[in-house]
């Protein structure tokens, strides 16, 4: 099943609805409405049917996933009962991020991307530690964007880049998992665009604190999630990057150092996976503009396609997004810095 979230107008303001997506049929199915109609057909009152539907299909995808198998069972039942009466045309919808993750962790596990990155920035070879334990950072959940939402171009950067990744969506809580056990904790896969301010990334990473403003201004998530029953393996999935309709690169999800199951298991060591968490696979080979020596501009439209999922499309803002303040440098108290 493909599951996404849309925003629809209501008398009380815009509401977020979870939908089952049928791209080949050109429609989505409002699951709460379909479920309520199905229950009314079984003699539930309209108010009772809506209460039941709201419990199964809240605005939060993470909260819905947290219900475990009851969520997907209810989704399939709703589609079977009243899909036609709860359908909307797929064109013209207002999408939001496919999931509202409690935590974003973004990995780095495709050696070909690592090598391409280091070749471009002149930073030598990738760190050997990445071949000993999976590497990842944590990103802000407050700046997630869905399909067709505009991405603000941060005014502090002159080099904004995209990154095509698989977004692994956690389906069940768990700690200290093994890779064999972690498979049952994987809900599905979406497209994750780890937008990066490359010029800022260089000096932030040199602080040995991990990325900050070079990453935490936008994360693209969508257009929807494909559940693992429809996408049993991520190995070998094909990807395409288009900018303003031009193909910039074609790629394949091959050669991961660590499998998705191993990544989930590693994250869970003395930590806790939560339903709806997103773990980025790391950028697919040639899945960033940096590797191609190509740069985005204000107003560009980026399309990231992933086999089995769909196309995540976003436009960069036409003008820089200016913040009202930026910190002034402070005196360096340790003599003359090395750099």
UniProtKB/TrEMBL annotation:
<protein>
    <recommendedName>
        <fullName>Fumarylacetoacetase-like C-terminal domain-containing protein</fullName>
    </recommendedName>
</protein>
<feature type="region of interest" description="Disordered">
    <location>
        <begin position="320"/>
        <end position="339"/>
    </location>
</feature>
<feature type="domain" description="Fumarylacetoacetase-like C-terminal">
    <location>
        <begin position="103"/>
        <end position="316"/>
    </location>
</feature>
<feature type="compositionally biased region" description="Pro residues">
    <location>
        <begin position="326"/>
        <end position="339"/>
    </location>
</feature>
<dbReference type="InterPro" id="IPR011234">
    <property type="entry name" value="Fumarylacetoacetase-like_C"/>
</dbReference>
<dbReference type="InterPro" id="IPR036663">
    <property type="entry name" value="Fumarylacetoacetase_C_sf"/>
</dbReference>
<dbReference type="Pfam" id="PF01557">
    <property type="entry name" value="FAA_hydrolase"/>
</dbReference>
């Amino acid at each position: 099943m493909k599951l996404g979230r849309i925003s629809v107008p209501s008398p009380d303001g815009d509401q977020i609805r979870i939908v089952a997506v049928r791209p080949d049929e050109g429609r989505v199915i409002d699951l709460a409405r379909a479920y309520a109609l199905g229950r009314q057909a079984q003699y539930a009152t309209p108010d009772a049917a809506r209460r039941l539907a709201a419990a199964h299909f809240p605005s939060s995808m993470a909260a819905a996933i947290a219900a475990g198998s009851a969520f997907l069972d209810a989704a399939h039942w709703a589609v079977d009962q009243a899909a036609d009466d709860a359908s909307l045309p797929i064109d013209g919808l207002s999408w939001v991020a496919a999931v509202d993750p409690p935590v974003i962790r973004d990995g780095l596990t495709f050696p070909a991307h690592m090598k391409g990155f280091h070749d471009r920035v002149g930073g030598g070879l990738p760190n050997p530690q990445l071949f000993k334990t999976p590497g990842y950072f944590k990103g802000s959940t407050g700046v997630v964007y869905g399909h067709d939402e505009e991405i603000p171009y941060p005014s502090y950067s002159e080099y904004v880049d995209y990154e095509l990744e698989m977004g692994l969506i956690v389906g069940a809580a768990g700690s200290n998992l093994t890779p064999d056990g972690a498979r049952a904790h994987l809900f599905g896969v979406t497209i994750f665009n780890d937008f990066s301010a490359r010029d800022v990334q260089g000096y932030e990473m040199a602080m040995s604190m991990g990325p900050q403003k070079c990453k935490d201004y936008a994360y693209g998530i969508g257009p929807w999630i494909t559940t693992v029953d429809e996408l049993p393996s991520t190995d070998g999935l094909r990807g395409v990057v288009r900018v303003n309709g031009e193909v910039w690169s074609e790629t394949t999800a091959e050669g991961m150092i660590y499998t998705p199951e191993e990544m989930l298991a590693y994250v869970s060591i003395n930590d806790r996976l939560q339903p709806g968490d997103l773990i980025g696979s790391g950028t697919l080979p040639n899945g960033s503009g940096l590797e191609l020596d190509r740069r985005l501009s204000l107003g560009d439209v980026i399309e990231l396609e992933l086999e089995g999922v769909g196309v995540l499309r976003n436009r960069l803002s036409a003008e820089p997004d200016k913040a009202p303040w930026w910190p002034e440098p402070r005196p360096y108290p340790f003599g003359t810095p090395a750099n």
